[in-house]
Amino acid sequence: GTQVIYDDGGNPYPAAGVTRKIYESGFDLTIAAGGSVYHSADNGGTYIVIKDPDDTSADLAGADMAVGSGLRLWLIRPYTYGVPPDNNHLKAYASNTFGATWNPSVPIITGSSSPIRSPQVAVNGPTIVLVWKHADPSTLDKPQSMKCLISQDDGANWLPVDTGISLTGTHEIADVALANHQGRFSLVYSVVVDGSTPAGVYLTELKLQ
User: Fold this and answer.
1) Angle at 63 between CA 57 and CA 69, to 5 degrees
2) CB neighbours of 148 closer than 8 A, spacing ≥ 6?
3) pTM, full prediction
4) pLDDT above 80 for 185
5) Which distant-in-sequence residues (6+ apart) come within 8 Å of 52 by Cβ?
6) Residue 53 · residue 65 · CB < 8 Å
């Protein structure tokens, strides 16, 4: 049957059909569904809506979220300020209370000359993997590579940024998804030609250095 995760005045968001991410450990269950993230500490008996650390009046969206060891919630955010072309930044939040409270944000990348597009995060124990679409400053509307950033000590230190995927010609990266299963980090991405014509969907396993 269909389980109602959240019902706002007669407008339910059922688990079927709208779920984007599910994280489970023991009796704890976190679900990114619709435009919000829901957490249950009693195996789905009741749920709370997790709030956004940048705006506590708004619900947290789940596209840039991952759950690490000890049920720690990680959240990454790109943002822009300053004088172009070095005005693009990436920061991370961590919560040990499933979003009830958040640690201060930590800057991961500062002063990038290219926007950080569609960032994804996956976590396995102390290992955190970030990926995002990258376009050269001269072709900002044409992302042709995927950048990767890895921490192996719970975000205390980060390895140098690596280019994991690079395309040429009229090919560009469209949709991106990053997942972790028992320490194996896999990236799925789709490629289009000339801005819109589908050219393929690819799966690659990221090799951690």
Assistant:
1) 95
2) 129, 130, 131, 161, 162, 163, 164, 206
3) 0.79
4) yes
5) 58, 59, 60, 61
6) no
